[in-house]
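**Reference record**
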Amino acid sequence: MKKIHRILLTVIAVAGVVFALFLSAYSLRYTVRRLLNLNGDVIDTKDSFIWNGFWIVLAFILVFFLGKVLRKCSDRSIHALAVVVSMIVAAAGCCLAACLKSVPMVDQLQVYVTAEALFAGDTDWISDYFYYKMYPLQIGLAEMYYLIFRIAGKCSPMIVQYVQAVVTGGSVYFGYRITHRIFRSKIVDCVYLLCAGLFLPIYLFDLLIYGEAIGIFFALAAVWCFLEANYGEYSSKMRIMCQVFCYAALTFAYILRGSFLVLWIALVMIQILICIRTKRTWTILAPLLGIILMFGGQSVAINTAERIVGTEFGEGMPKILWVAMGLQENKENATGPGYYNCYTADVFTECNYNAAEASEIAREDIRKRFLEWEKEPGEMISFFKRKLLTQWNEPSYGVTCLIYSLDNPKEWAWNIVNDDMEHNWFLKMTNRFQSICNLALLGYFAVLVRRKEDERMYLPGLVWLG
């Protein structure tokens, strides 16, 4: 069993090294930028290797001297620093939201107007609304914003953005608690707080009426509870309570964004490794009961909305449509390979919302795509390389193109988010910062290749690989 445990950890670490090395190499020489427009067009720009190298060296010098200073600091002092940084992040997020005045558009607008209708009691039109015939799971997100409006007593995108800025501060704090529990290092704790405070995309995600900020808050709370349940020095009763809180928080995250299922998979894998090491096989029951809670919570959210609206939304768009779209080249526009191009909505609408018929069309398109790649395997490698880079070598991770609609923003705030790389100092620094983070990620996985005893250190890497 111990040998299996070590082999599994090695596989995770080696996979991480491969991907992190790939991203590090490209981020030092090139940048993919997604432009601030409706389509989210991408362009490639060449980076200065010398300037990137300069900032990387400067970052490592900073960490070196930070380590010397931190030897005299207590854990209590660093915890206080974490609270202060979290409050600064929340305040900065509120300030940026107030000055940018982002207006919800496209999918964000659909979710917002639904929450507004639930608040006003005007729900008759929702029953025939095409959007929820395609995306019924989004109704849970609309209900979350509706609850925020009920508490606030009025509707406004700014209310949501302020709430999301505050919970992002909470996310930074939970991230600190997770980092402290996993790595048990003052230097790592402080480096995390520094990176979290400087990471521009977390402030921009506060502006999206799309569930990411609140979902991440609950997801990080779930990870912290998971670590406390498995590694904290508590009684059996307290460990069980931590597991309950873990999967309750993950359920809320899953209701908001279905992609948090990836986190559950990572927790299951770590729990299996814990079972192998400790031989306490009963602990695997926690994530298995957790997934039931997650699916059940999502069903309750949808059924509640259906009861209010007086209709059934159905199963929605089949997931295989997204797989087919993710394999398309998008030669007609400049959005990059596998990016959203309305294929899913067009096919599902043409099939009159018939999931079986739409699935058949998607399967045929996937088959044709793989036949093309069978003839040109080099093109397949090129496609997935470019697809990966447009997702992970873009300084804002694609968030800037989602906030292109701004209502008379302050000039200084606009200067932070505009997509002019040549003149935008913040975007330049975010780009350098991304290169530093990619190298740090490579170093993290390289350390994991040698250290195979403690599976908790592999959790962040598993989530990232997912």
Remarks:
- The radius of gyration is 23 Å.
- The CA atoms of residues 23 and 392 lie 7 Å apart.
- The chain has one domain: 2-465.
